[in-house]
Amino acid sequence: MSNSILEPEEHVLSTLERDGSRRWLKPKLSKGKLLTLRRWMAYLLIAVFTLVPFIKIGGKPFVLLDIVARRFTIFSFTFLPTDTILLAIFMVGMLLTIFLFTALFGRVWCGWACPQTVYMEFVFRPIERLFDGTQGRGGRKKDVPAWRIGAKYFVYFLVSVFLANTFLSYFIGVERLSHWVRQSPIDHPVPFLIMALVTVAMMFDFCFFREQMCLVACPYGRFQSVLLDQNSLIVAYDQNRGEPRGKAKKSNANSAGELPVIGDCIDCGNCVTTCPTGIDIRGGLQMECINCTQCIDACNSVMNKLGRSPNLIRYSSQSRDRGEKSGLLRARTLIYPLLLAGIATAFITVFLASKTFDAVILREPGNPSIITEDGRVRNLLKLKLTNRRDETMTFVANVSEPNDVELDLSEDALELEPNETKTFHIGVIAPKSIFQFARATILLQIENDKGVSRTLRFKLIGPYD
Ligand code: SF4
Ligand code: SF4
């Protein structure tokens, strides 16, 4: 049986060979104005990604995503585990901002600012080109000596270790990270294992997975079809100008010796061999396009050599390509900002309403009430306090109603470190007389050292008689 029955006529995916194996991409670097701009942008972003964990405002980190402590500091504002509503509003606001940005500027983030693209195209690929050299379509030279390949992977490893440490510092902070780095791996195997695993993940991503991250793993890339509209900025080939593509050959001249009328695209394929996701942008808008603009630089360089005007491939929009007017004002670019304004208002309202501290009272599990030697009823409770300020706070607790109820605190002072949540065990001793049908309501007043107080209502459990 012929193999051709099983083989598709064309590539189903840009990174799959016809037999289903991985098609490794070695994109050719295309120099041009956009590459120069992207390169400067990338260097700036690498500096920002690296330095952000070191930035502190008023002694607080600018960004720290402490998952273990369930405390997220973003723009120096700390979201505590009790800030579910604030965090939810913030996340919805971030999502809407992404929607608005994508509707206006398409995948500018992917091509210009995403860490995956920035590190892949401006750190790992240059290292690869340095050690492997390039030829033809941008692939590595044949017969690269083993030592060069080994050296390349060693440099990859060093960069991955650095990246792993940078990445981890967003989650554990630079102080804890530097402590981990100075520890012996034998004494502290868990931190060492975490660093090793993140380094391996970086190596896997940048040495093996590469463009697959954008093509199959990134959710933002998958959502493009719904986030973009007809007026969004895209990288597009000008079909009207480029087609029919091909080179004017004398052999194709008609009987009168006239050469056929052809478009500006000479079908050189440079826009394809330079593409880091392996697509041909002349086929129209594709989900795989990360708007890296390499095809624009490649084609402009061809047009320049031919003495033709540039921008056969350029930033455009689907409506502009159809000859329609393309504007910024449209339904989604009006609705998203309105929703964002609502979200910002909700965030500010909830933020201003939140107190300087949170207090919750809970019943101890097990046997919550006992009769004391002097015949009173003792309830065992848990008082959970959260200090929402960046300074130490001390609290005083007392029962405001009824008068003859006493508190027995497990600790001398109710003191909390900045942004700390702590549970205190308290005993509430009340006379039997206040219980009706085995229940008695008390008002517990918690006041901090700044005079801010909260009153909690709680039902004690007691005997029926
Ligand atoms: S089609 Fe052009 S802009 Fe899109 S990913 Fe390929 S090279 Fe980059
Ligand atoms: S680089 Fe330009 S001229 Fe060459 S194939 Fe692509 S679109 Fe056509």
What does this structure look like?
This protein is an alpha+beta fold and 465 residues long. The chain has three domains: 193 residues, no CATH class; 97 residues, no CATH class; 105 residues, Immunoglobulin-like, CATH 2.60.40. It contains 15 helices and 16 strands. The strands form five sheets. Strands 8, 9, 10, 12 and 14 form a five-stranded antiparallel beta sheet that branches. A four-stranded antiparallel beta sheet has the order 13-11-15-16, with no helix packed on it. Strands 3-4-5 form a three-stranded antiparallel beta sheet. A hairpin with a 2-residue loop joins β4 and β5. The model has no long low-confidence stretch (mean pLDDT 88). Bound molecules: iron/sulfur cluster (2 copies). One iron/sulfur cluster binds next to α12 and α13.
Topology:
Elements: H1 33-51, E1 56-57, E2 60-61, E3 63-66, E4 71-74, E5 77-79, H2 84-105, H3 108-112, H4 115-132, H5 146-172, H6 174-182, H7 189-209, H8 212-217, H9 219-222, H10 224-227, E6 234-237, H11 239-242, H12 270-273, H13 294-306, E7 313-316, H14 318-321, H15 331-353, E8 357-363, E9 369-371, E10 377-387, E11 393-401, E12 406-409, E13 414-416, E14 421-430, E15 439-448, E16 453-461
Helix pairs in contact: 1-4, 2-15, 4-5, 5-6, 5-7
The structure holds iron/sulfur cluster (2 copies).
The site of one iron/sulfur cluster has 14 residues, from helix 13.
